[in-house]
Amino acid sequence: MIVDVIISICLVVGGIFGIVGSYGLIKLQDTMQRLHAPTKATTLGVGGVLVASMLYFLFKEDTYTFHELLISAFLFLTAPITAHFMAKTHIRMRELRGTLPETQRKHGWSLYDTPPEMLTDPPADEVKSLESR
Amino acid sequence: MITYALMFAFGCFGLGLLANLWRIIRGPGRADRILALDTMVINSIALIILYGIWQGTAVYYEASMLVAMVGFVSTVAYCRFVLRGDIIE
C-alpha cells in the first residue's frame, strides 16, 4: 500500500513536470527563454517516471534492474550539451557580428572568428607568470 | 491507484507532445524547431517507459535507451549542420 502511494506520487510529479516543460515551450516569449523549460523541467519529469518504473518493477514484479538509472544519467548528461548547441544555433541564425558584445578576451566569438592555435588552457598562475615575463 | 496515476501521466506527456507539435509548426526560427523536436524525443521516451509499466514487461528499456541515444545524436547533428554546413569535418 505504501509502495503504491510512493509509485503514484512519482508518476504524478513526473507527469506534472513534463507538462510544465512542454507548456513553457509554448508560453515563453523568446528563444533563449524557451531553452530553459524543456531542458530542465522535462528532464526532471522523465527522471520521475524512471524512478517510478524502477520502484514498480522492484516491488511488484520482483525484478531489480539498473537500466532506468542508466537512461536518466544519459539524459542528465546530454541535456546541457544539446542546450548549448541550440543556443549557438540561435546566435548563428539571429544575431549579426556587429550586434554581439565584445568578449573581453584576446579572441572573439568562436562562431565568427577563426579559432586561435590549438593550445590547451594553461592554469591561472601560469598565465600570470607568462604575462609578467 | 497506480492505474489512475499512470493514466494521468499518459495524459500529461500526450498533451506535452501536442504542445511540441504546435511549436514545431509555429516556431519562428530553426533553433525553436530543433528544440521542440528534442523535447518531443524526451516526451516519447517517457511514454515508452509508461507503456512498459502499463504492460508489466521489461522489454521497453532497450527501446527507450535507443530512442534517447538516437535523439541526442540527431539533435547534435542537426545543430552542427546549421552551424557549420557540415556534420563531420
UniProtKB/TrEMBL annotation, chain A:
Task: Name the residues that span the membrane.
Answer: 6-26, 38-59, 65-87
Keyword terms of this UniProt record: Membrane, Transmembrane, Transmembrane helix
- List, in alphabetical order, the Gene Ontology terms for molecular function in this entry: sodium:proton antiporter activity
In this chain, the stretch annotated as Disordered covers 111-133
- Which PANTHER family does this UniProt record tie to the protein? ANTIPORTER SUBUNIT MNHG2-RELATED
NCBIfam families from the xrefs?
A: CPA3_mnhG_phaG, PRK12674.1-5
* Identification of the protein by name: Multicomponent K+:H+ antiporter subunit G
Organism, as annotated: Sagittula marina
TrEMBL record, chain B:
The molecular function GO annotations come to: sodium:proton antiporter activity
Tell me its family.
Belongs to the CPA3 antiporters (TC 2.A.63) subunit F family.
Bilayer topology reads:
Multi-pass membrane protein
Q: Does the keyword Transmembrane helix apply?
A: yes
Q: Which UniProt keywords apply?
A: Antiport, Cell membrane, Ion transport, Membrane, Transmembrane, Transmembrane helix, Transport
Source domain of life: Bacteria
**Keyword Zinc-finger found:** no
PANTHER family in the record: NA(+)/H(+) ANTIPORTER SUBUNIT F1, NA(+)_H(+) ANTIPORTER SUBUNIT F
Q: Which residues cross the membrane?
A: 6-22, 34-54, 60-83
Stated name of the protein: Multicomponent K+:H+ antiporter subunit F
